[in-house]
Amino acid sequence: MKPLGPTDPRRVGQYRLLGKLGAGGMGSVYLARSDRGRTVAVKLVQPELAAQPEFRQRFQHEVDAARRVGGDWTAPVLDADTEAQTPWVATGYVAGPSLHDVITNSYGPLPERTLFILANGLVKALGDIHGAGLVHRDLKPSNVMITIDGPRVIDFGIARALESGEGLTRTGAAVGSPGFMSPEQCRGETLTVASDIFCLGSVLTFAATGRTPFGDANAPMTALMLAIVQGQYSLDGVPESLHPLIESCLAQDPAQRPSLDQLHQFTDIPDDGREPWLPGALVAQLGRHAVGLLDSEEPVQATEIGQPTLGPPATAPPSGYGYPPVQSPPPGGYGYPHPATGPYT
């Protein structure tokens, strides 16, 4: 998290901004606290997008849809003001680093057991998102947050608001991220929930190796997208027990990809809950992150953007995310069936 700069607001609606978490094609994201003391993430829309009536309409639609997403595996939409001069949306803040930061900056590729539990949590998150009638459209490591109780998926559905032709042209923003897009996404076709399944395979490969199945995530966009549409992937470095699962997700034909029910079945490994799902070094890192969050100071000065707009009453965060207990792998390993012979076909 970066300190607030001279051009950053100090207050948005009822939320006091504490620091800047990042920025993307749609706008900037800030860590903030409500007047009641709840920590949230506030996303402010870019001014050039805010000036477009079509974008505002789509943004309102996507925020309304995102409010319907429930469950323990996503960051809930708590509040929004799509009519403000600078539209914004507030979501529950997930106190943990992103999967991208964990793999590239603080730990490295995750061990096999952690990968299975990660996959199971992401499948459950996609179930909540798809159950609300949404397609995520931008499932990538930076949109997966790592907590002591499991992963959380953020930014679901909101990316669709960028799909208006004018907004895309004026901002140069792409809906999706190179290396974590489906073939149909690269070709600009209509997306279904199967697109998120494809991206799940890429995210799991990154978590296991530090790269996408189609090459380094920092490779040129055209090279990555060409490899995706041609199905040229590599699972070198991925545990063998995960190969059938990821291969099925990366099927070129959306109709050949597994359903969420199938994915849940094959990632629901036994667990007695006695051991953390993360390696010890990551558990310690999360503890330090939580201490830093508690020590965050609210800025003294305040510049208002819009008026307080209260959404549904903020609900308390879940006491636990309900991961199935994880024991030692069975004698023959986790034993995922190969797509060619298992229930994926």
TrEMBL record:
Pfam families: Pkinase. Residues 336-345 have a biased composition (Low complexity). SMART domains: S_TKc. ATP binds at K43. Signal peptide: none annotated. Residues 15-278 form the Protein kinase domain. The keyword Repressor does not apply. GO terms for molecular function: ATP binding; protein serine/threonine kinase activity. InterPro entries: Kinase-like_dom_sf (IPR011009), Prot_kinase_dom (IPR000719), Protein_kinase_ATP_BS (IPR017441), Ser/Thr_kinase_AS (IPR008271). Residues 304-345 are annotated as: Disordered. Keywords: ATP-binding, Kinase, Nucleotide-binding, Serine/threonine-protein kinase, Transferase. SUPFAM superfamilies: Protein kinase-like (PK-like). It comes from the Bacteria. This is Serine/threonine protein kinase. The lineage of its organism: Bacteria, Bacillati, Actinomycetota, Actinomycetes, Kitasatosporales.
